[in-house]
Amino acid sequence: MASSSGQSGRAFSSFGELDCYRPEPNSRRCQFFRPDGACERVGEFMCWKWLAVTQGYRPEDKTGRGKETKMEASKTGKGQQSDSAAYKNEYISYSRIDQYKKCPKAFEYSYVQGKRGDGTDATRFGSACHAALEDYFNAHSEEGGAVNADELCGLFQKHWGDECLTDQALFDEGLAIMRRFAVAHPALEPMQVRGCEIPFDLPLGRFRVKGFIDRVDDLGNGTLEIIDYKTNKQPYSDEELESSMQLGLYEWVCRQLFPWAKRFVLSYWMLRMGYKQTTSRTPEQLDNQIRYFEAMAESTERPEYPARLNALCGWCDHREYCEAFQNACKADGTIDLNSQSGIEALVARREALAGVLNGAKNSKDAIDARIKAVLDEHGDFTAGGKAFRYITKTSYSYDLAKTLDLVSRYTGHSRDEVMREICSVDSTPLKKVVSAYGKSAGSLKAIELQAELEGAAKSRTTKVLFSSNAKE
Ligand code: SF4
Fold first, then answer.
1. 339 falls in which pLDDT band (50, 70, 90)?
2. Which of 50, 179, 276, 306 has its CA 20 to 30 A from that of 338?
3. How many A from CA of 196 to the centre of ligand 1?
């Protein structure tokens, strides 16, 4: 099937050869790297990662999407220095506008001043998952069928290494995500996946909008499903889904890339949860979202970029030098819970504290990793009045039958009584068993088993405080 751009389904990933996702060019991880920055796979083309490291191009944008960061910064004539008044977007993207919306100061650091972050484990983990899925569908979208879990896991493992990630628990979670994803895709139609990482570059008013769409599926009868993969730990609320500017923007894009399509389904594929959250837009909603997006783009060129402390500050690339965050980290005495300024002020303070807490945890984890590296290399050491060494902690995993026998014999209670008292099922291995069963018996049987297990389980509900972004 030909697309509106005259490309076949797989040809959408036309950047595949250029886009190696190497996180650390000039390292032994990239076998194609040459000292002059050219990639041996693509001849004279420069590796964009190499450009990112050596010349300040932003790694968030593939295939040179971030080149304008440097160009914009140089327009000010001050290199990495801010000249907010002179700032003009060379192009806009969803991620840029989203960052501005969350915190204008973070936008200023990233795009006006051109300061680059190295990314967090969470963003690299997301990249590894995205890249594995993209590789898989680039190789298999034509034939369709069931998604092969082992192949997907192999691809994830490859990209995990490329992203230089090391956390074992996160790695296991990634494999579980890939397996869950395979179970949820038992029978794709040939060519159902029309494209992955579909690039776009379209005019919107005086701006150009650039970006990539994770995946577009052809559901038949003129219906396209636009899919964005998410590694969020929480699902979106109905309100968030309805107001998602990203999904609205992507429909606006696909209406131009695929003018033959009559209907659009908009989905977030929640990789950690293994299900999709789906929504749609009326023409009026779509129009409003695009107008809003354009208005936000205009705002990004205003000369003021106020800091907006929020729960994500802990993961912000700029937190080390962000004055607002650093000030918030300082102890600031008591909080007046009955303040005259009311709940609004308390909510704002709570967001700031959440950001500080997250930031403090991330920083402590990073310091702990460094201390462990020193211990590994030099053994026990003393610093800052503290002595550091490894201690051995032992944990036990008890054999069920032997434990029941022993406790029953010593206490005089029956095995059934002891079992009721001390046994419960660990949900993580249980999920693995259900998932493995799904591979052999089919996903419908696995869903049936899961439903029966949940019916037989004792459930307990607790109220948990949860906040999400209010509708615009
Ligand atoms: S640390 Fe928080 S307030 Fe500072 S730039 Fe980042 S997101 Fe904004």
1. low
2. 306
3. 32
